[in-house]
TrEMBL record:
Residues 1-18 form the signal peptide. It comes from Enterobacter rongchengensis. Gene3D superfamilies: 2.40.128.300, 2.40.50.540. This is Envelope stress response activation lipoprotein NlpE. The keyword Lipoprotein applies.
């Protein structure tokens, strides 16, 4: 009974996740929907085939703001063996389309309660090997990712507007970042371009207590004064 209740809650939550995002794009990509994607949860994991390692342990996380994070660990490979990417997601009647920060696309489709990876054109992969990720409950990966966006700090709170996705996220407390930002902005109270290797996590909002996506700066943070997301 408990398992059935949890499944029902997951279905209702992810129906909202998929039903509210990118409606206009859905109509453009697939005007006549012959099959709706079933409600799915927010995280999946599985081991995908690898040509030169034992397998690629792949974790995929979808978020309500239309973004995703994917972590891939190459089993049996030399260090570093884990890599993470992120971007935006959209859906058609039958496919989930992931677009990363460089514009490259990855395709999945619902397969039972899981997610099956498709080929580069969005077609099923004819193979005896496993290409399906199973639903799991897992935390966002801590693998650093290269990010670029506008950083703004005011009233004891920092906001990062990602250049690739356009999404705004809170920034975890980081005294060094705050000092470097103050130097970079000078006398102007305005956003400054920041490049950084970081990862996303969930932290409670200090006012509401709601868990919100937050950027954690891991390393190589650099402010570039006088530049913005459109700068080369």
């Amino acid at each position: 009974m408990k398992k059935a209740l949890l499944s029902a809650l997951a279905v209702s939550t992810l129906f909202a996740l998929f039903g509210c995002n990118n409606r206009s794009e859905t109509q453009v990509l697939q005007p006549t929907q012959t099959e709706e994607l079933k409600p799915m949860q927010q995280s999946w994991r599985g081991v995908l085939p690898c040509a030169d390692c034992e397998g690629i342990e792949t974790s995929l996380f979808l978020q309500k703001d239309g973004t995703w994070v994917m972590n891939q660990r190459y089993q049996g490979a030399k260090e570093p063996s884990s890599f993470a990417t992120y971007g935006t997601w959209a859906r058609t009647a039958e496919k989930l389309v992931l677009t990363d920060t460089t514009g490259d696309k990855t395709y999945f489709r619902a397969k039972g309660e899981g997610m099956e990876m498709l080929d580069r054109e969005g077609n099923p992969i004819e193979s005896q090997f496993n290409y399906t990720l199973a639903p799991v409950k897992a935390a966002l990966p801590a693998t650093p990712m290269a990010m670029r966006g506008m950083y703004f700090y005011m009233a004891d709170a920092a906001i990062f507007t990602d250049c690739a996705t356009g999404r705004k996220v809170s920034v975890a407390n980081n005294a060094q970042l705050e000092r470097d930002y103050a130097v970079a902005r000078g006398n102007d109270s305005k956003p400054v371009l920041l490049t950084v290797d970081g990862h996303f996590t969930l932290e409670p909002n200090p006012d509401s207590g709601e868990m919100v996506k937050t950027l954690v700066a891991d390393k190589d943070a650099k402010f570039i004064a006088g530049k913005d997301c459109n700068s080369k």
